[in-house]
Structures are given as C-alpha cells and as structure tokens.
UniProtKB/TrEMBL annotation:
<keyword id="KW-0812">Transmembrane</keyword>
<comment type="function">
    <text>Converts cobyric acid to cobinamide by the addition of aminopropanol on the F carboxylic group.</text>
</comment>
<comment type="pathway">
    <text>Cofactor biosynthesis; adenosylcobalamin biosynthesis.</text>
</comment>
<keyword id="KW-1003">Cell membrane</keyword>
<comment type="similarity">
    <text>Belongs to the CobD/CbiB family.</text>
</comment>
<dbReference type="Pfam" id="PF03186">
    <property type="entry name" value="CobD_Cbib"/>
</dbReference>
<keyword id="KW-0472">Membrane</keyword>
<feature type="transmembrane region" description="Helical">
    <location>
        <begin position="286"/>
        <end position="308"/>
    </location>
</feature>
<feature type="transmembrane region" description="Helical">
    <location>
        <begin position="6"/>
        <end position="24"/>
    </location>
</feature>
<feature type="transmembrane region" description="Helical">
    <location>
        <begin position="148"/>
        <end position="167"/>
    </location>
</feature>
<keyword id="KW-1133">Transmembrane helix</keyword>
<protein>
    <recommendedName>
        <fullName>Cobalamin biosynthesis protein CobD</fullName>
    </recommendedName>
</protein>
<feature type="transmembrane region" description="Helical">
    <location>
        <begin position="58"/>
        <end position="79"/>
    </location>
</feature>
<dbReference type="InterPro" id="IPR004485">
    <property type="entry name" value="Cobalamin_biosynth_CobD/CbiB"/>
</dbReference>
<keyword id="KW-0169">Cobalamin biosynthesis</keyword>
Length: 310
C-alpha cells in the first residue's frame, strides 16, 4: 500500500481511528477541516474574480490541499496515522447531528427540527414540513456516510493518514465550491471534478455495502434501485449511494426541495413509502453496520494475508 503500512497495521489503525471518533467526537479546537474552511474562504475571496476562473479555482485547490497533505506525508509513527484518521472521520458527528432531528420531530418541535436540519443540509428548511425534514435527515446520513466515513476509510487503506486527509480536504472544498451557481460554476469546477474522481470507487463500494446490509428481501430492491435510478441524480457519486441506501431501507427519497430560494424537483430514489422520522435512526444504523462491515473485511483480509505468509 502507498502508506507503507502493512495490512495488519492498517486494520488496527482503522479500528483505532473509529474508536477515537466514537469516544471523542469532533475536535472542538484545532480541527483541520475548520482551518481549511477559513483558508478556503480567504482564497475564494481573493482568487474568484476576473478571467480564467477555472484555472484560478484549480490554483486555489492546490494552495488549500497540497501543503496540508505534504505535511501529513512527513508524519511518522502509528499514533500520528491514527490521529489523522480520527480528525478526518465524521461518524459520531453524523449520529450527533442527525438523531436529534428524529427526537425533535417525535416531540412535535418543528422549529427545532428545522434548525437542526439546517445545520447538515444546504437546502432551505425554514418552511419545511415534518416529512421534508425526515427525508432530508435520512438523505444526509446516507450520502455523508460515504463522504464523511467510507471515503475516508477507503483512502486511509490506500495511502494511510495522508490519503484520508487528501480525501477529506478535497470533499470539503467540493462542498464549499462545487456548485453550479453563477458564483462557483467556473471557480469550483476543479474542486468538483477532483472530488468526483477521488469518490468514484468509495461511493460504489458504499452502495454495494448498503445492498449487502439491506434487510432480508431488500437486497434485490436496493440493487435494482442503484442500477436503474442512480444515473438520474445530478451527482455521479451521490446517486449510487443514495439510491442503494433508499432501496435498502425500503423508502423513497428525493423530490422537491428549496435551494437558494428556488424550488428544485429532484429524481425520486428508492422504493416504498416516503421516508418518515423513524427512518432517520434506521439510516444511521445502516451507516454504522456498514462501518463494522468495512472494519471486519479489512481485519479478515489482514488475518488471511498473515496466515498465508506465516
């Protein structure tokens, strides 16, 4: 592997990173993604102007990502690899942000549910109904399971701490710049395309994992939803993840949502009734079980490799 870590070391460090994330949650101070966000805003204000905005956006991506990734490449030692992975993972953060939405909806506290949902999605939630909030919460869990967890784990397996950091920095810049709006259509194009490339394999492995972990009788449905619906979604990587996840849960996602004051009607994904509040913890459980599956697969591969080379 590119990291120089053995398969056994990688398996141990994956488990360590996940355990640290579950125990500690997001770092409240000195979080690299928070620092990246501030740097990205500064770069965008200074470079997103004039002509050649695609090239300017590519230069901004390099300035934001390369120095931090190069610093991570200089790190040595297991503990530092585990620390970088912990800082890049967002598993507990997904749980801590999404499950309170379910609780607020169960209590009938729609204003609080709208505020909680607004923290994890880019759509306008100020007038959102309970079904719309439930759908947004489930969608965010399924999609960000890939972006905040499985993509990070994949690139850690490939390239250790530097790989995990490269992926998360790239994904964060896509989330900030990768819009087809007047402001970002050209400037954010490089960030969007790079994230598409880095996310291509993790997204499909995530979609396959959702298929495998579907409830009995749901695997074929999840597979069919993935293969027939994903291409209609605007994102080439979110489509497979969300279609298979919705199929695995036996619910439908997508439909109308308000972005920047404009009503957008997105393709319907999945099969069954519209996602409801109780489907938010079901989506979290699917993400959690997928995490355990990935850890088990890597640990098993390490044991088999060790036995064959003993």
């Amino acid at each position: 592997m590119l990291s120089g870590l053995s398969l056994a070391e990688t398996a141990i460090l994956l488990a360590a990173g996940v355990i640290l994330d579950l125990l500690l949650g997001e770092a409240r101070r000195w979080h690299p993604l928070v620092g990246l966000g501030m740097l990205a805003q500064w770069l965008e204000r200074r470079l997103n102007r004039g002509r050649a905005r695609v090239a300017r956006g590519a230069a901004a991506w390099l300035l934001a990502v390369v120095p931090l990734t190069a610093l991570a490449c200089a790190l040595r030692g297991w503990a530092l690899h585990a620390l970088v992975l912990y800082l890049c993972l967002g598993l507990r953060s997904l749980r801590d942000h999404a499950l309170p939405i379910r609780a607020a909806l169960a209590q009938g506290d729609l204003p609080r549910a709208r505020w909680l949902t607004s923290r994890i999605v880019s759509r306008d939630t100020t007038q959102a109904s309970e079904p719309e909030l439930a759908r947004a919460g489930a969608e965010s869990l399924l999609e960000n399971g890939n972006d905040a967890v499985f993509g990070t784990l994949f690139w850690f397996i490939v390239a250790g701490g530097p790989g995990a950091l490269l992926f998360r920095l790239s994904n964060t810049l896509d989330a900030m710049w990768g819009y087809r709006s007047e402001r970002f259509n050209f400037f954010g194009r490089a960030a969007a395309r790079i994230d598409d490339v880095l996310n291509y394999l993790p997204a499909r492995l995530t979609a396959l994992s959702y298929v495998l972990l579907a409830a009995p009788g749901g695997r074929l449905r999840a597979w069919r939803c993935w293969r027939s619906q994903a291409r209609a979604w605007s994102s080439p990587n979110a489509g497979p993840v969300m279609a298979s996840g919705a199929g695995a849960l036996g619910v439908t996602l997508g439909g109308a949502a308000v972005y920047d004051g404009e009503l957008e009607t997105r393709p319907v994904l999945g099969a069954g009734p519209a996602a409801a509040a109780h489907d938010i913890p079901r989506a979290w459980t699917l993400v959690w079980h997928t995490t355990l599956l990935w850890l088990a697969v890597v640990a098993t591969a390490a044991l088999v490799h060790g036995a064959l080379h003993a």
